[in-house]
Amino acid sequence: MLANLTQPLTSYALVDLDAVEHNVRAIHAHTGPEVALIAVVKANAYGHGAIPIARAALAAGASRLAVARVDEGIQLRRAGLDAPILILGYAIPAEADAIARHDLSPAVTRVEVAQALSERAQALGRTLRVHVKVDTGMGRFGLLPDEVLPFLARISALPALQVEGIFTHFAASDSPDQSFTHQQLGAFEQVLAAIRAAGYSIPIRHAANSAAALDVPAAHFDAVRIGIAMYGLAPSDEVEPAISLRPALSLHSRIARLRTLPAGSSVGYGRSHICHSPTRVALIPFGYGDGYHRILSNQGHVLIGGQRVPLIGRVSMDQITADVAALDAVQEDDDVVLLGTQGSQRISAEEIARLAGTVNYEVTTSLLARLPRVYRRGGAVVEVARLAEP
Ligand SMILES: *Cc1c(COP(=O)(O)O)cnc(C)c1O
Fold first, then answer.
1. Which residue ranges in the chain fall short of pLDDT 70?
2. What is the pTM of this model?
3. What's the pLDDT score for residue 242?
């Protein structure tokens, strides 16, 4: 069914938009419809492709988007997305003009940034919606709780800013022990109470990432910021997600060359694998230049013919090699799955993350621009995003 569009591709990431939409709907059913969903599509939607994912998330019920950087927001605006876009990360005064022109909603914590934003927005004759970031225990970005009221007092007089939101971010909501999350929640609620008492009204309060959206109902407030769960991945190995998620991404390639190396041959850079007997080796055009971690050298597995086969030798920039001696019928051009399912076998992002000493987030976010993204909906390919059309 994918044949026509994927035929000219040696390797690609397949993104199942039905899975993304299923996950967004399942999360929304879990939080309840009164909680708005902010789809987090930073870092090219964790490697899945920001624009198609943003569209799918909005179609499935998300009402807002979030990214980390101003450029990411501009990319979405240029693609015609007109939903509110929150910039989660730090913006500098020099970015105020771009933020105002593209009607982005930055997190604010500095008076000078807020002033620059208001000035630029006023010059364009518009009002910019901003969200105040509060650091309740992450120790990174945000105002400390007792800085919030003085900050609001200074920026509320700015003519072209509307404080639309206030938010915080959890440091350990993916842990089985939620005591620190509840401590952060308590600190955030105190800030909210102080704001109310001082007569401010900020309509959108948000705190939860995927883990808290799934596990901590008290953290839902007016909106939740959904990243990893939207892609169908669990926020951590330690907690089983409360709902059934469908991983959206799989990685595919094909056997470019098949041959039997004589005993004594070595495979790849550094000669890290020596064939002690004649070995049937499949060459697969996928490497760290696509985002496949080099640490998987001599450790990772791929699926061919519905079976797991081990990688041998180093992962290089453009190629990997697998020992296919255990497979009876294998041919050049056969499909290879590096992540995903084939027959009854499955390689998960979590399996790769464990081997690579990282988290599932980094496995997909590492995928580079060279790797084509193929988007599927309702069993058909609906879009292919690649470096260059042939
Ligand atoms: C990335 C990010 C999220 C999304 O986190 P997930 O664990 O992927 O759901 C939410 N909020 C902020 C501030 C973030 O930076």
1. 1-6
2. 0.97
3. 87
CB atoms within 10 A of CB 97: 16
Residue 269 catalytic? yes
The catalytic position among 12, 46, 133, 269 is 269
| Nearest of 58, 366, 137, 353 to residue 235 by alpha carbon | 353
Question: Is-catalytic flag, 133?
Answer: no
**What integer pLDDT is reported at residue 1 of this predicted model?**
41
Residue whose CB lies within 8 A of the most ligand 1 atoms, among 41, 209, 215, 236, for a mutation test: 209
Ligand 1 centroid, distance to 274 Cα (angstroms): 44
Q: How far is the CA of 47 from the centre of ligand 1 (A)?
A: 14
Residue 3: the pLDDT is 55
86 lines ligand 1 (CB under 6 A): no
Fill in the amino acid letter for 93.
Answer: P
Distance of CA 219 to the CA centre of its chain: 21
pLDDT of residue 126: 96
For 64-122, what is each residue's pLDDT tens digit? 999 999 999 999 999 999 999 999 999 999 999 999 999 999 999 999 999 999 999 99
Give the type of residue at 83.
A
Share of the chain above pLDDT 70, in %: 98
Ligand 1 centre from 340 Cα, in Å? 24
**CA 170–ligand 1 middle distance (angstroms):** 9
Specify the residue with its C-alpha closest to ligand 1, atom 6: 227
Burial class of 194 by CB neighbour count within 10 A (0 to 12, 13 to 18, 19+): middle
- pLDDT number for residue 8: 81
